Amino acid sequence: MTAPKIEQAATVARMSEQKSLQALSAERRTHEARQVQLDQLLQYRAEYEAILQEKSGVGMEASQLRDYRLFLERLNSAIEQQRAEVAKSQAGLETTQDTWRARAQRTQALDQLVDDRQREEVKARDKAEQKRADDDSMVRQMARDDF
Fold it and tell me: How far is residue 143's CA from residue 135's CA, in Å, rounded to a whole number?
């Protein structure tokens, strides 16, 4: 692969890595939002259960107790659904993170290759300049020796 093609590949890889990083950031925000919702539901359930415990300790009507329990069942169902959403977003986050890591490694490898090529080019130019300088010096020396 020629140097310009390697540089183009490195540029494309950097852009791909950047898109993956943006996707990772979005996926992380989504996951965190779902986790916050789950935490809120769990906190709400704990508060509601505490209220139910308190009220049932003093006595309450059967219909009111039934309503509380029915609401708690619905709340528990919502919590389970939210747990499933959190697990799903965690899996998506891990997949997106793996994709980003792979692209970052590819970018790093291509950048290293570009750097190596550039160092080789500089080294070759320096060597060629030194050879020219040596040749010029030899020509001058030979010209002096001829006089």
Answer: 12
3-state secondary structure the chain: CCHHHHHHHHHHHHHHHHHHHHHHHHHHHHHHHHHHHHHHHHHHHHHHHHHHHHHHHHCCCHHHHHHHHHHHHHHHHHHHHHHHHHHHHHHHHHHHHHHHHHHHHHHHHHHHHHHHHHHHHHHHHHHHHHHHHHHHHHHHHHHHHHC
Q: Are 13 and 74 in contact (CB under 8 A)?
A: no
Global confidence as pTM? 0.73
For 27-50, how does the pLDDT look when each residue is reduced to its tens digit (9 = 90+)? 999 999 999 999 999 999 999 999
Residue 12, both tokens: 């494309």
86 and 35 in contact (C-beta within 8 Å)? yes
b/e burial code for range 8-47 (CB count within 10 A of at least 16 → b): ebbeebbebbeebeeebeebeeebeebbeebeebeeebee
The mean predicted confidence, pLDDT, of the chain is 92
Segment 109-143, tens digit of pLDDT: 999 999 999 999 999 999 999 999 888 888 888 87
